[in-house]
């Protein structure tokens, strides 16, 4: 094989292969299942809050730690697993995230009290927190560049699927067994199945080259060419490049680079991620409890929340159809504040089951138009060398906000302001973020990334 520098590298060949559902599509489906479990696990917090509040006689401030512990674990896991993937490989990290999640979910199901339960939920979140970034990295590296944008956008469609499955499964379990422990144990079975299936996903050739395993890297690339029917041409392996290790020093450098690039852009990215996703997590975690307190039976509250999540799949489709026609800023400017306003309406009509259900379905659709566009927009605000860290830090800020925000919501705002005003205050925060974006952040539709 020629090693002339004029030849394309193996990873470039992989990025130009034809799309095949039984090759790259299979990796997309397996990676998407990890994203689905992330949604299932976050939605499970909302299911567990009313159930454990009754089981252990928890006040809302105590119950809020069910979601807070889980989301903080995810925030830390999102960073740590990136370094783990660099050390042990995408494939092993790809599988290990779900294994860690499964072990601590089982332990959580047998917790004797709320303290141990939160510890195990934190560790389960830590495992699953690495699932999404590792999945995105692996799916992106194997997807042809012509399809990459659509495929990575479609990954977000797994979220409403996972959230809806959580609600439906929990409703069936509570109607049949009336035991919250089964709601946790049942999701471990498909998680372990996905863990087993993930063993067949090939290792990233770029990782193999970096580790000096060039023969294995060449074998993976040649196998992909053969299975997709790609053109057989000469190519060379890329030069190995050891990635920078993630330490406190490099994290500080990343942060400084983001703010040095543009203070206004970084404020826009962080504030949009923080406020829009805070509103989403407030609804996802506390809506089952709100509905139960309003008189809904537990199984009906879970089914209603499941419907709210499921209709979000239509929102993702609408976002994909509108994002290039309308532009990122206009969609976020409308759907962000509108989703919060709909929650205020839900709080006002929650005692009328039919009206509350209709407005919750409207909320599920609108907020899932906003979230995929938000992901696309923030990733486009930074140049290539800052894009990963820019998106990663904005996502981490949102996870921390989603962890502590509901704690403040149920401990301070809801008891003193009431539910409608509390949601309205969250909406004001979204509106402020949108106004900052409108004034200081650029529109990225059709813009070159660099």
Automatic annotation (TrEMBL):
CDD domains: MFS_SV2_like. One of its GO terms (molecular function) is transmembrane transporter activity. Pfam families: MFS_1 (PF07690). It is a multi-pass membrane protein. Keywords: Membrane, Transmembrane, Transmembrane helix, Transport. The keyword Transmembrane helix applies. Residues 27-445 form the Major facilitator superfamily (MFS) profile domain. GO terms for cellular component: plasma membrane. It is found in: Cell membrane. The chain crosses the membrane at residues 27-51, 63-81, 93-110, 158-178, 267-287, 299-323, 330-350, 356-378, 390-414, 420-438. This is MFS transporter. It comes from Arthrobacter zhangbolii.
